[in-house]
Design brief:
Largest sheet: none
Structural class: mainly alpha
Number of helices: 2
Number of strands: 0
Radius of gyration: 27 Å
Strand content: under 5%
Low-confidence stretches: none
Shape: rod-shaped
């Protein structure tokens, strides 16, 4: 085997892995991302409402404990 091919053999695996990672990141469907972000926003809004209700309940409990 010619000496010039040895560096190529050493770089074949890291370069292949880098290309696979790049294709996996770029290969995602755009519509799925949009649906996920819309669903994520709805979930965040629901969690914010739940946190607000918990804060209100905690304030009420603190107010009752002081009275």
């Amino acid at each position: 085997m010619p000496q010039s091919l040895y560096p190529l053999l050493l770089l074949a695996c890291p370069l292949g892995m880098g290309l696979m990672m790049w294709f996996m990141v770029r290969g995602g469907s755009h519509s799925t991302r949009r649906n996920d972000s819309a669903a994520g926003r709805l979930q965040v809004d629901e969690l914010r409402r739940e946190i607000a209700a918990l804060h209100a309940a905690q304030k009420d409990a603190d107010h009752r404990a002081r009275s």
